[in-house]
Amino acid sequence: MGLLSSKAASLFVAPENRAAFQAQALQREAERFVQQLGELKGAYVKIGQMLALYGEHLLPRPVTDALHTLEANTPPLAWDTVATQLGAGLEGLRIEPQPLAAASLSQVHRASAPRVRRPLCVKIQYPGIADTIEDDFRNVMQMLSLAQWVKSGRQLQDLTKELHTHLMSEVDYARELRVAGKFSRLLKSDARYCVPAYYPKWSSDRVLTMEYLSGVEVTDPAVQGLSQARRNRLAKHMLALFFHEVFDWGLMQTDPNFGNYKIMIDPEGENDRIALLDFGAVQVLDNRFCKALRTTITSAHRRDRQGTIDGLIALRCLRADDSPAVKQSFVSFCEFILEPFSQTADEWPKHAVSDEGNYLWRQSKLLTRAGKRGSDGMLVKGFVVPPPEFMLIVRKLTGVFTFVSTLDARMRCSELLQPYLD
């Protein structure tokens, strides 16, 4: 109602001041909308966070900016409340009432069990979340429509479907257990990564029990204080994991939140590892999508314009009858985002090259420059918003590149892409 009142009030504003008045009104209403989501908590917060990630091309910029301010961590619920979710079948499991962490849909507690030497933790879903999530999702989308922040059409339908699928996956603990098992098997012999052991006998549709892995986030001073060589290795581990996910496995963790990964620092300094902690947001990528993505990436790396266009058409980012300007805009963006994987430093901006000829991830400001280029591309006449799957990849890459930049990596990366070029 506030936005509608503001629109009506703008009719009484001088024409030369109307645009500024409406922009200020939109900013106020966006902040009010996000405040309401935060107060409602639970699934509403998660839905808002997902809209911030996937709605950037369909929602007004002030709305997505405001949605990005939603806190990932929320105050934990009292133990007596979350304990109602435990049910039967957890005999022998001792759970500490004080939570380790709390998020929008669940909270995590330390635990232990007889004859289990490993420390454990238990992820407990909040009461009622799974039962109300459909209504909560519908309510948020209706709010967006009433505010006239989204327009009906194929793109909105695709976004709604994508968000709904991801949201339901987040509360499907049986699925998360299966996906975690797949990752565990895929990485069993890879010393660069660690997947916690899960315990199905102490898990249910509302509870997940797993091994507790000690470690710190990438932003921790202990990680930031590692030698350049060790930070470079960790950065390559994260980049290699991305290529494995999208090219080799067709399984991708779509939530690049730093909290979903821990750095397990090796006291001997030989093998620092990345622990993968959350599998609720993992999406299965079909073969068609993976093949098209591979074609797009490898062609863009080779500067093969037609191959890149063919890949983008297969990804449904382009149409065969799109204008040359639209096609060139997408091709240029794909080539640009692969800048760190160039085989020679000649293709890098001067500020991104070290004296030793390595790529400076933090100083490169790659994501800032890519965001500007992407915004400019949207202004090209005939531009069509890419499908949610492609935006998912862009978001994933943003998270991976941010992780690498946070490590202040200084290295060449072309060899990571080379196996897929061959």
Automatic annotation (TrEMBL):
Signal peptide: none annotated. Keywords: ATP-binding, Nucleotide-binding, Transferase. GO terms for biological process: ubiquinone biosynthetic process. The keyword ATP-binding applies. Pfam families: ABC1 (PF03109). InterPro entries: ABC1_dom (IPR004147), ADCK3_dom (IPR034646), Atypical_kinase_ADCK (IPR051409), Kinase-like_dom_sf (IPR011009). SUPFAM superfamilies: Protein kinase-like (PK-like). One of its GO terms (molecular function) is transferase activity. The keyword Transferase applies. Residues 94-307 form the ABC1 atypical kinase-like domain. Belongs to the protein kinase superfamily. ADCK protein kinase family. This is ABC transporter.
